[in-house]
Design goal:
14 strands; binds ribose-5-phosphate; 24% helix; alpha/beta; 7-stranded mixed β-sheet
């Protein structure tokens, strides 16, 4: 079975042993959004009636939320309870008719479906470029199964190696102090720490929890991810970071040559 298309950026030898190609190569060139939708629809095949579901946030996860709503309307799914990971997903879920609840009521979820900003060959993730990392991490760490859905541009060899942001949610109090501490923490990796701002008015971006986001950019590999994770979380002022280590149980990747499902 040809799996050469499942490439982790920068990887010499992608780890694809446990992958399964589930659709044949398509002759049509698909847009990135169409690929996201294909991955999302594939993930929704894991959903069964009666499940308590973690509903992710972002341009990929929104296709899954829409699909679940559609199947509920068609009567193909019944008795679903959704736990949204952001205010935006909350609104979307209501609009498509998914009954909602929260972690206080359902501390253990059957399944969560969500996108990611980066995925490494071990299914570690960077999340939070949409700003929802804290609620996502709370919900997705309470799930028996966590299905991650991406198009193939999200695959990387090392987290933080794509040159894009590694988000850290912090309290607004003395944010410059916290940003500087984070920068110094990863000085050897050439870290730049930037407060996320709304592009329209330059005001700080505020999360659903009333916090700020510091985006970390690295010139070099940050080394052991667990060590980096623990160190960030020990810093007073930090609420959570966007590294989701050892949480995903299944990865669904949609690419030009088809859809691949990889189980951990
Ligand atoms: O905060 C946002 C979430 O972590 C998203 O799941 C992640 O950013 C991926 O989003 P998208 O599917 O839009 O690329």
């Amino acid at each position: 079975m040809a799996l050469a298309h499942l490439q982790f950026i920068g990887s010499d030898k992608p780890n694809v042993d446990s992958c399964q190609m589930v659709s044949s190569p398509s002759p049509v060139i698909l847009t990135q959004d169409e690929l996201k939708k294909i991955a999302a629809y594939k993930a929704v095949e894991f959903v069964e009636s009666g499940m308590v579901l973690g509903l992710g946030t972002g341009s990929t996860a929104c296709h899954a939320v829409a699909r679940i709503g559609e199947l509920l309307k068609q009567g193909k799914l019944k008795n679903i309870v959704g736990i949204p990971t952001s205010k935006k997903t909350h609104e979307q879920a209501i609009s498509v008719g998914i009954p909602l609840s929260d972690l206080d009521t359902y501390p253990i979820l059957d399944l969560a479906i969500d996108g990611a900003d980066e995925v490494d060959p071990y299914l570690n993730l960077v999340k939070g470029r949409g700003g929802s990392l804290l609620r996502e991490k709370m919900v997705e760490s309470a799930c028996k199964k966590f299905v991650v859905i991406v198009d193939e541009t999200k695959l990387v060899k090392h987290l933080g190696g794509s040159g894009l942001a590694m988000p850290v949610e912090i309290v607004p109090f003395c944010w410059k102090f916290t940003a500087e501490r984070l920068r110094m923490m990863f000085m050897d990796a050439g870290c730049v720490a930037k407060l996320r701002r709304f592009s329209e008015n330059g005001e700080p971006f505020v999360t659903d929890n009333g916090n700020y986001i510091i985006d970390l950019y690295f010139e070099k590999d940050i080394g052991d991810l667990k060590v980096a994770s623990d160190e960030i979380l020990r810093l007073a002022g930090v609420v959570e970071h966007g590294m989701f280590l050892d949480m995903a149980t299944t990865l669904i990747v949609a690419g030009e040559l088809g859809v691949t499902v990889k189980n951990k």
